[in-house]
Amino acid sequence: MHLEDLVDAARDSDFFTAPKLEADLPRFLDEQAERIRQLARRTAAGEFEHVYFVGNGGSWSNMYSGKYLLDRLTTVPADVLQGYELIWRDPPRLNGRALVFVASYSGSTEDALAALRHANARGAHTVAIVNRHPSPMAAEAVEVIDYDSVALYVLPLAAVTLFALELAVASDGPGRAEAEAALAGLRELPAILKRAYREAEAPGLDWARQFLGSTMLYVLASGPNYGLGYKFALTVFMENIRVNGSIIEAAELRHGPIEAFERQRADVVALVGTDESRELTLRSVKAAEAAGARVLALDAADFPGLHPLLAPFVLIVPLEWFTVHSALLRGILDLDERVFMGHRLLAAGPDATWP
What we know:
The chain is of the alpha/beta class. 49% of the residues lie in helices and 14% in strands. It contains 12 helices and 9 strands. It has helices spanning 3-10, 18-44, 58-73, 83-89, 110-121, 136-140, 154-171, 176-199, 201-210, 226-241, 278-290, 311-329, and strands at 50-54, 78-81, 98-104, 125-130, 143-146, 216-221, 244-249, 267-272, 294-299. Strands 2-1-3-4-5 form a 5-stranded parallel beta sheet, sandwiched between helices. Helix 3 (58-73) runs parallel beside helix 7.
């Protein structure tokens, strides 16, 4: 098959979410915004004293943004944890005054399901963020946010982002003005996503060809983009391109990791935000290039009108185009098939179907 035909087939895959975001994001917000807003108002009123964001793999990466935004915009304590880490820590604040978001695309991820059950046993108010009903998590959570889409990063990200922004507004604290601006920015995202999808296709192929020989992709990310960087470094690049990946917080490059560049020609994907992390991220990019690294820098500043806190919603689009072309050029034609994952590798329990 010609590459163009393979790309057309990829548009229908579950992995390639970018073609669906323009339609699925506003639909999700229309359907779920009021439920999420009510959770935020109940938290602002003091019903919940601590918020936990729980997920594994890619689902951890979008839950990370919930913690980031609550820390930045509110005074509500929050944690982001993997499923079993919540159980092993068993924090005393996980009680009837805790609100626990647990994300799983399938709704039957072993770790997430175990964490949900643990939180239920502690009396917490649990919210399952899942693709659709029915699933064990949807059946057992106190509330369910089901998004009915393959956009397993962006729509859970939208859920926790909207929750954090609405909580900041309802709390009327120092983060209110920034939260209101970001809420307005959410309404502008579909148009920005449409343009990003159209404009990143050709460059995505060029980037894939440039990095075709890569066996290791470091991802530099910070601030609002760290969760997205984690997702691509530790899940997507290894799952879909099947090369090594590693996440480096952008400010941490100079604190050790860059020494490895002295013995190798490093390949780096840098996510450059327009928030406070921008200047140091750009410094890290220059340092990496000076050390001989080949750098693909994806810059949120290339998307006018994009609020700094919403950068990961859009930067995922060029990242997906890069991944799609990289996989196809390497002969990986089924973007949804995994060699080990999805075959109950290390899975335990009759309800667990992933990983």
